[in-house]
Amino acid sequence: MLSERTVALGVSGGIAAYKAAEIVTRLRRLGINVFVVMTEHAREFVAPLTFESLSGNPVVSDMFAGPARWEVEHIALAKKADLFVIAPATANILAKMAHGIADDMLTSTVLATRAPILAAPAMNTGMWENAVTRANISALRERGVRFVGPEDGRLANGDSGVGRMSDPERITRAAAALLCADRDLAGKRVLVTAGPTREMLDPVRYLTNRSSGRMGCAIAERAVARGARVTLVMGPASVEPPPLVDVVRIDTTMQLFHAVMQRMSEADAMIMAAAPSDFRAAEPLASKIKKRGGKPLTLELQENPDVAASIGARRKPEQKLVVFAAETDNVIENGREKLIRKNADLLVANDVTAEGAGFDVDTNIVTFLTRDSAEAFPIMSKHDVADLLLDRLAGLMG
């Protein structure tokens, strides 16, 4: 229960520090006990009294506030926290974390804690893209630190670019997901695909389908909540990717194919929920196709590679593969044929013509197929489908 959980919220000295107040408010609404740790520079942006009033707990900041206080606050809070959130996480704080520097209360507590760490970076675009920062981020990821953001948008100095801290609502969602996790996928790497692809016909037109990306994003979000490290290869979907996933953006089926092929060797499981286009233009035109005075237009299409089948042919015996099949008729027969042809462990079939199933809705009606079984489920939310699927996947991985 969230009401029994404790979050340590580290606030460092960036202009986004004021947004941390809303994070405290949102966490408290979920019943989570919050203790705020501030750097000296953070106090220049927001008064500690603000966080004390919102959290109902004293703010931890000064390492030498009184006799024995440092030892009590530093070690006790490090042990007490179920999750350590750092928002904003400046380039300076991330660098200290990466190199084990503990020269204030925040960095000392982070270094002492064994709780999961969630960082919400916030900095100038140049600082975010600097090679030193990229190396620090990479090192922290390898040690298990989770990241949410940063986002692309307007920055404090008036520039626009990547570096803006994620919205408090998104950070709170990520924190709640980590606190609620079943953790049965902890240590596993899961590759998920989501959304449609687009195949250009000319500079303004393309072939695509109605996939919204909701199903794949729901799977990615629930897999993260259960402890997996998730890479989401995502087409031009109508929904935003969930927090805490590594997102790879693609447009075409060929881009999807190459992105998956490059990353599948690192995955323990691959879940193919995307809806890639089966065909692409043999020769996309360089200029816009004009009307032909009523005359028919003939387009020459060529077949795209079957991404799921390519994975099935190349995967190692210990790697698990789950594929989706959007069908309009003969769901079981067509689904089982695809299961075998794609060399998958599990196929999720659905009739996209059924009300409440298929594209661009929040629910789905699915049947899980293996080589010797078929299990049909009633209508449910796509997040519930995701959890059922991950239950099966966890069982397959042992």
Describe, in plain words, how this protein is organized in 3D.
It is built from 13 helices and 21 strands. It has 398 residues and is α/β, with parallel strands linked by helices. The chain has 2 domains: 2-179, Rossmann fold (3-Layer(aba) Sandwich), CATH 3.40.50; 189-397, CoaB-like (Rossmann fold, 3-Layer(aba) Sandwich). An 8-stranded mixed beta sheet has the order 12-11-8-13-16-17-19-20, sandwiched between helices. The chain has a 5-stranded parallel beta sheet with strand order 2-1-3-4-5, sandwiched between helices. A hairpin with a 4-residue loop joins strand 19 (367-369) and strand 20. The longest helix is centred in the last third of the chain and has 16 residues, at 382-397. It is globular and about 75 Å long.
* Beta-strand fraction estimate: 15-25%
CATH homology superfamily of the largest domain = CoaB-like
Q: How big is the Rg?
A: 24 Å
> Order of strands side by side in the largest beta sheet?
12-11-8-13-16-17-19-20
Instruction: Give the CATH level 1 class of the largest domain.
Output: Alpha Beta
Judged by helices, strands and strand pairing, the structural class is alpha/beta
| CATH-assigned fold name of the largest domain | Rossmann fold
Chain-wise SSE layout:
Layout: E1 6-11, H1 20-29, E2 33-38, H2 48-55, H3 69-80, E3 83-89, H4 91-99, H5 105-112, E4 117-121, H6 125-129, H7 131-142, E5 146-147, E6 151-154, E7 160-164, H8 168-179, E8 189-194, E9 199-202, E10 205-207, H9 214-225, E11 229-234, E12 246-249, H10 253-263, E13 269-272, E14 279-281, E15 301-303, H11 307-314, E16 320-327, H12 331-341, E17 346-351, E18 363-364, E19 367-369, E20 374-376, E21 380-381, H13 382-397
Parallel strand pairs: 1-2, 1-3, 3-4, 4-5, 8-11, 8-13, 11-12, 13-16, 16-17
Antiparallel strand pairs: 6-7, 9-10, 14-15, 17-19, 18-21, 19-20
Helix pairs in contact: 1-2, 1-8, 3-5, 4-7, 8-9, 9-13
